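name: query_chain
kind: protein
chains: 1
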Amino acid sequence: LQRLAAVSAPDIRVVPSVAHGGGPSHAHLPGHRHARSPMLTREAEDPFKGITTEPIQNRPSMDERKLDFVLCGATGFTGTLAAEYLTQIYGMKKYKWAIAGRKQSKLENLKSHLATINPEMKSLPTIVANNKNADDMEQLCLKTKLVMSTVGPYVLYGSELVAACARAGTHYVDITGEIAWVRHVIERLDATARTTGARIVNCCGHDSVPWDLVVYEASKAFRKQGDELKDIRIFDEFKGVASGGTIATLFESFQKPLTKSKRKDGDKRFDPMVTNSEQKKATSKIVTSLPKLCCYYSKENEEYVGPFVMAPVNSNVVKRSNALLGYTERLKYYEVETHSGCMAAWLSVLQSLWFATAIFFPPWKVVMMMTLPSPGQGPSREQMQAGYLKVKAIARSHAGNKQVVRLGFSVDPAYEDTARMMVECGLCSLDEAAEKEGVAGVISPMVAFGSRLTERLVRNGRGCHFSIGAVE
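structure:
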């Protein structure tokens, strides 16, 4: 259960009340060394082993590139949702874009499907490329200003592509929640991307735009008052169903750990998430408080609460933003999931235990996988329409002021709105304001886009609501 709290960010150590980033790419219980069984996990690997990270010389300027963006992994579950959203909202008139994948037949099938939604899609270009082939990825990236990637698990299929983007000066967004992999991306590609001008923005979906956004907006509101954010307490109400791709990523995170990723500043090593723009350790840090794997009644929110499985991922993305934007020198971050009652809260914990058993007991995994979706499969349209996310953040400042930030999505945020969030993040990277700001490197969503993203999500949202207000 301790490991499950960091299931999507397995390099976070969970202690009774505080979780800190950094450490090895699998969870450790305090006082134990190498507790992994060889039966359960394979030897740690470097996802960028053998991959070139030097900038491409004589790369074309943005004006010389034929395409505005390419959607990679378009034939997968979330990729198809992203393609449908682009078709419905933007079509082919405003942007020149293409879909990319490994099989032409699947790309053609998707193209035909999109044409039933919008006839303009009959002229949609397709690109066949192998995401493990360096030459394919380089040629793809040199054709476009931006890549939107849904090719998870990213530790298996994403490294060549993101490296090619950084080397080519091509902007990049994805929907990963694989924080161990993101640490490697920062370590290997941050300096390269700053040199070429590429904006490499991970975690642009449900993992972890909503939480990055509410913390950013709370800090912004306090700064307008001449004040500074001190701590933030977040309560999440969530309903959704996992896809086969998400399940595959969770199993991959534990059964194929990554090598330890650390930056070096002189003789000292540090967590890549706190790398500043000068490639040194930032002075701003985050203290993350997560509940034990049990449930309790919150007097503050007047609801039963328990651990939220994505909190370790979200807190790391906020850590990255704080390191680069400097919300405060020591930000306290607390996050829980809310439940309708005590029974519902404990049922949630039991479901987590059931899943954790499969991760650490392979025979049970075989049985469980018979009942779960395969990669490429996901929840039905009806299930996604029934899903939602409500985030309530109570922020306090150093001067004792208080703000309440609310962000809500009225459809499934994990897939349908994840696709929309990624698309809007990508298009933010193409707007004139982003080009004028010239922000580059491996950065978080709010560092890259700020309130422009908040405005886009509300304006183009299918039931996305945002509010912030002071509380006496």
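note: The CA atoms of residues 88 and 117 lie 7 Å apart.
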